[in-house]
Write a structure and sequence with these properties.
Oligomer: single chain
Radius of gyration: 22 Å
Number of domains: 2
Strand content: 5-15%
Bound molecules: spermidine
Number of helices: 15
Helix content: 25-40%
Number of strands: 10
């Protein structure tokens, strides 16, 4: 199978390089004549060669490292990965002027913010022919219609993971927001260190819309989070699943795939979307506007590689998240495709909401989140 991937990639890489060379052939023009004034220069000029190295700014443990080395073997382009733990952390770093990243992986609402702020470079679809493999419903998502800037990477849900050998299924977010010192999870539970995600859990528990900008409702959610802190071991977006698998903690608010991965280590780890509902999300791979034309071309080649049916399946087999790649789905184990923690049934899906951009209230969420974390 790997040989087939390699062959396909070589063919595609050659095709892209040939296309780049063909575009670079200048139209016959006498050198002495001034070039006609052009209102708009193409983002990538014809003679651009792909960068020999790219840096991908990604969530941690979100990609099989073999995918990077396979891509390097196929194209000669090496890949370095840097990690972030929340959309807000990634956004702040890029807004602060961090350059050098050829790719980053924002969630839905953050894509909308980044497009609005001019932080993303539009995709040249001619360099991403494998876009044809994307599932129909991932082609016109409201935050990026027509995949003008990004390609959906993986999708999933946010809920509660727990050690089923120690506690019963936490059916409700009350397990977190009504801390009980006599419960087995008191002091052995974490929540995501993520303003929009943790506020979403509090808001949904209180019966409010997770995208509310009503200051009274947000203040109530803040108080609920401060109360919850009493029963928490902390806020953690990096090791929450490992701490449940190792037995140090017994419950964590987190993302479905991360809990499924650690089932290999501890089969008692389970995951549930509480009865109140929660968050459904789509992460996307996108090119920061700060990428050079060379980095952008190499980044598009990488996106195209990820969209290979086999590579997309390899991604899901590694991180246990649902794939937006329809061609990959055909290669995935039917057991995975039927797992309700990966592909939620209709009755769960209808209780889930997308986090949406809230404009100026974004800073209100951040201020209230800082208050939650610093409250004594
Ligand atoms: N271990 C990688 C997990 C990536 C989860 N991203 C989801 C963000 C939803 N707000």
């Amino acid at each position: 199978m790997k040989r087939k991937i390699l062959a396909l990639t070589l063919v595609l890489t050659l095709a892209l390089l040939l296309a780049a060379c063909a575009q670079s052939a200048p139209a016959e023009q006498p050198a002495a004549q001034p070039a006609p004034a052009q209102e708009e220069q193409p983002a990538v000029s014809g003679d651009v060669q792909p960068a020999s190295e790219i840096v991908v700014y990604n969530w941690s443990e979100y990609i099989d490292p073999d995918i990077y080395s396979q891509f390097t073997d196929a194209t000669g382009i090496s890949v370095i990965e840097d990690n972030f733990s929340s959309n807000e952390e990634m956004l702040a770093k890029l807004q602060g002027g961090a350059a050098g990243y050829a790719l980053t992986v924002p969630s839905d609402y953050t894509v909308a913010i980044m497009i609005e702020e001019g932080m993303l470079s539009p995709l040249d679809h001619a360099n991403v022919p494998n876009l044809a493999n994307l599932g129909e419903r991932f082609r016109n998502l409201p935050y990026d219609p027509g995949n003008q800037y990004c390609v959906p990477y993986q999708w999933g849900t946010t809920g509660l993971g727990y050690d089923s050998a120690v506690i019963d299924e936490p059916a409700s977010y009350a397990a977190i927001f009504e801390p009980d010192p006599n419960s087995a999870w008191y002091g052995r539970t974490t929540m995501l260190d993520d303003p929009r995600e943790s506020f979403a859990a509090a808001l949904v528990y209180l019966g409010y819309d997770i995208n509310t900008t009503d200051e009274g409702q947000l203040e109530e959610a803040k108080q609920a989070l401060i109360r919850a802190r009493e029963g928490l071991a902390g806020f953690d977006s990096d090791t929450f699943e490992d701490l449940v698998a190792s037995g140090e903690n017994v419950m964590a608010h987190g993302w479905n795939g991360d809990f499924l991965v650690v089932q290999e280590e501890n089969e008692d780890v389970a995951y549930v979307v509480p009865e109140e509902g929660g968050v459904v999300w789509v992460d996307n791979i996108c090119i920061p506007a700060s990428a050079s034309p060379e980095q952008k071309l190499a980044a598009e080649m990488f996106i195209n590689y990820l969209l290979e049916a086999e590579v997309g399946a390899q991604l899901s087999e590694y991180n246990y998240y649902a794939s937006p790649n329809a061609a990959s789905e055909e290669l995935l184990d039917p057991e995975f495709l039927e797992d309700p923690t990966v592909y939620p049934p209709a009755e769960v899906l209808e209780k889930l909401q997308y986090i949406r951009p809230v404009g100026e209230a974004e800073s209100l969420f951040q201020r209230l989140w800082d208050e939650v974390k610093t409250a004594s």
